[in-house]
Amino acid sequence: MGGDNPQWEWQRTKMEMKMQDICRPNIHSNAERWNSFSYRNIALLPQPCRRGINFASFGFPEVDEDITFWIGSAQAHTPCHYDTYGCNIVVQVFGRKSWTLLPPDAKLTSVRIPYEESSVYCKENFYSPASYSQFTKVENDVYQVILEPGMALVVPPRWWHYVETLEPALNFNTWLSLETDVDSLISECITKLMVQDLCDEVAENVKNRIINPNEELLTTTTSIDKSYSILNYLLNQKRTKKQQRTDLKRYSCHYLASDAFSRLVDECGSFVSPVKKLNQTDFYHFIAGNHARYDSSLNGGNYSGLTADETEQAIRLRNLVNVCCKPDVVKSIETTLLDEYSE
Ligand SMILES: O=C(O)CCC(=O)C(=O)O
Ligand SMILES: [Fe+2]
């Protein structure tokens, strides 16, 4: 069950449990709960479990460490967002997971709160929507696929995705580095500096509602100075059109032309297929089904436990960060810095 806002990460409870219990969330209680142990690097897995995990069969033999795993019980989900870096390859190993995808220009409302470097969330709640009205602007832009064991999904850069586990499931993924990530580094750096400055001297319990739990904000003057030097370095490189010196292999980012894609599907149709677009009626039924989880008594959870003053401060801060850190606002700050502030 959920209220009208997406279930953000700070609302989760951290607990220690055996791997076998992660997938049986209600075994010790009747409470409705889902568990997830996700978005973690495979280095956390015991060595024998890591054997054979790499992306060589996809043509990327160099990818054998930068791999993330996701384990969850039914209903474990990640609110709709896009990743600011890379092109994602997802491999489903166990159980099924539903992926709902929308193109980068879909009319969703981007928010930077909760703040997490590399993820831009949207305000619309796919898990327990209060109503369908928030989705009318995107109802013709929705793609959906259910990943089953043995399937892989390529998520194109900056596509929005809402992902929900349908039954106990395990998958791995990697984000291939792209040449365009260098631009994202600049905008993510500007965003981080603004969030840091706006959150400076804000009490910890208010900050917890703004910053994602796994995100470390720089707080000391020296670390903030360091971020400014990184930003200046990146801006200067862009001004002088210098290539970033890096050991990292970056791939160019091109969509296949539609005839090349058709040829690929013709030739490899038994194992390659495009993700299907949902028709409006099916999308409506998907949202209506998820609406059954909506519980208005859970509304307002974003500020529960805060005093009236703290709530007001958190709302003000959230609105300010969301406005200042809109991707197009950040882009325009970057352009201004490049044009008017070169040394
Ligand atoms: O599996 C999930 O819950 C989210 C996955 C995701 O966001 C990603 O792979 O980029
Ligand atoms: Fe993602």
Automatic annotation (TrEMBL):
Keywords: Cytoplasm
PROSITE patterns per UniProt: JMJC (PS51184)
Pfam families the UniProt entry points to: Cupin_8
Domain JmjC: 34-189
InterPro entries in the record: Cupin_8 (IPR041667), JmjC_dom (IPR003347)
A GO cellular component entry from the record: cytoplasm
Primary location: cytoplasm
Subcellular location field: Cytoplasm
Keyword Oxidoreductase carried by entry: no
Residue stretches in coiled coil: none
Main function: May play a role in cellular stress response.
Protein name, per record: JmjC domain-containing protein
Organism: Anopheles maculatus
